Amino acid sequence: MDCLDHRMLSALRAHGGDPRVAGAARALSRAGEHGALWIAAGVAGAAVDGTRRGAWLRGTALTAGAHLVSMGVKRVVRRPRPAHVEPLVRTAGRHSFPSSHATSAAAAAVAYGTLGASLIAPLAAAMCVSRLVVGVHYPSDVVAGAALGVLTARLGSRWMTGGPARPVGATGAAGAAVQATPHDRRRA
How many CB atoms lie within 10 A of CB 174? Predict the structure, then answer.
């Protein structure tokens, strides 16, 4: 597994030799630091969608919570960052597993996708790939982070929407028809 992780990372990091790809990957990495992009997206959703403001804010809390959980897992696992490739960005910490960028991106994709924000999922996928292109995570770090983000958001989906938890993968356009929370129904 480690050998495959190393080879896949080396291949993806090689794409960072293209200045356009490197620039986009760096920008995504910076925007995703500490979940900032996703938290800002949730707050913006709450500001624009007053009828579901509570659901947006709870989705933002789930996204931030997923990020915090990933940071806790990092402190337990303590896997070092890849040393066989030259990173294109500086990192906030020394530990690699799981990718907190991937965790918060996947949590946001599930939480905000439930509210109909269909553009979040492709941006979240790009964020995950960017961590490989900039050379600061192994692919298994990103996969584990994304899985943790999805799991966290799915576990909190009932709280977020006030309805029953929906199966993993029920996001996007089909996920737009979410039942309003009791708090949101009172506000409407």
Answer: 11
Largest CA distance in the chain: 56
Element (H, E) at 73: helix 53-77
Would residue 175 be called left, alpha or beta, if left means φ above 0 and alpha means ψ between -120 and 50 degrees?
Answer: alpha
The Cα–Cα gap between 100 and 128 comes to: 10
Please state whether the peptide bond connecting residue 98 to the residue before it is cis, i.e. omega within 30 degrees of 0.
yes
pLDDT in tens, 108-130: 999 999 898 888 999 999 999 89
> Among 9, 18, 38, which residue's Cα sits nearest to residue 131?
9
Tell me if 31 sits within 8 A of 165, measured CB to CB.
no
Paired tokens of 5: 């992780």
DSSP state of 32: T
Give the model's confidence band at 186: pLDDT under 50 very low, under 70 low, under 90 confident, else very high.
very low
**Cα 133 from chain centroid?**
16
pLDDT tens digits, one per residue of 27-72 = 988 998 899 999 999 999 999 998 999 999 999 999 999 999 999 9
- For every residue of 127-178, DSSP letters joined together read HHHHHHHTTSS-HHHHHHHHHHHHHHHHHTHHHHHSSPPPPTT--GGGGG-P
CB-count exposure of residue 120 (10 Å: 0-12, 13-18, 19+): buried
